Amino acid sequence: MPITNIHRRLGRWAEFFEQQFKWPAVPATSVRLSCPPWPVTTDPPNEAEVRKELQLLKRYKSPGPDDLPPALFKDSGDFLTKKLTTLFTKVWELESVPTSWNESIVVPIFKKASRHFCIKYRGISLLPIASKLLASVILRRLFKTRERLTREEQAGFRSGRGCIDHIFTLRQMLEHRHTYQRPTIVVFLDIRAAFDSLDRTVLWDCLLKKGVPKKFINILKALYTNTSGRVRAYNYLPPLFHSSGGVRQGCTISPFLFNFAIDDIVETALMNVSNGGADLLSGERLLDLEYADDIVLLRDNTQGMQSALNQLAISVRRYGMCFAPSKCKVLLQDWQDSNPVLTLDGEQIEIIEKFAYLGSCIIAGGGVNDEINSRVVKAGEAYANLGHLWRLRDVSLDVKVGSTTRW
């Protein structure tokens, strides 16, 4: 039954997000370096770096708990640049941050389905602008080296990559294999509360193992120590809740950190699976595709797919996460045998005929008819939703036409 009392609603939001950011800790393990230390400077940030991040700061973004808007930082000139540089240098030396930087305001953003359930919302963290500037400095130093080490199969949060790349790759693969009637199994995987359940301790160990300088890891740890937040809803801010897991959606460096974890999960799982993937015309084999936590597995036999699923389930648990089997799906193409029974964490995965992957309808054979029909329906719905605009006499034709072109 929906909660009608405002104060009880606020309490429920705080309770939900506190549970969402608190997952069972993963047992500690020893860490061995698998990569040499990255060739990046560990000197404190200089004025040029801080000035550049201030210039790139978007003026109209929301402020954090301190209510200091980005425009204030952008318009304060060299005076604030010098003050921030001094502050960041102090943080660099002490490897600790002001306690206020660990607080955030969590804004629930509706995803889909029923609006009456908290689980249908994603929490976006509004953080102090100063902490985001420091995170941006760290990200810019590490980005180029990390980009060279990122798996080719990962397209999420990468410059020059996007959803369209993986949609095109998957469609082309299905189309070419269908031409030669090659049996193909595609499994679409969903990690439950992926960003919120990631174990931070294991993440820091992963960064160390991959060669990230310890100075950066220690500062990132400081940004994620004793984190807390308040949920902004109904123009109220309830009491603080504490969080111990996940990366904060809204922090500049969170996508960078999350990709580290996903790459390590998939790499560790699939290196123990032999003869995997679906062979392509070039003689190469495509094993998987990732866009952040959207993982696609490709195989041409049931045994290979089940082995990959088992290894992935083990690997993802190392990071405190788990799959949501009910949201995972199987797509079969040119499959002559009886439908395979594939399981994940003991639950059978549903076989479907089409799947909305990264917003695009994927079907066996790689055809686009269903996708075109889906887009026509969505366009019609968007047009209908603007019906009130078409009926307004005091709105010019230019505005009405402009609205439709933006859709």
From TrEMBL:
Lineage, uppermost ranks: Eukaryota, Metazoa, Spiralia, Lophotrochozoa, Platyhelminthes
InterPro entries for this protein: DNA/RNA_pol_sf (IPR043502), RT_dom (IPR000477)
Designated name of the protein: Zinc finger protein aebp2, variant 2
PROSITE patterns: RT_POL (PS50878)
Superkingdom of this protein's organism: Eukaryota
Positions of the Reverse transcriptase domain: 90-362
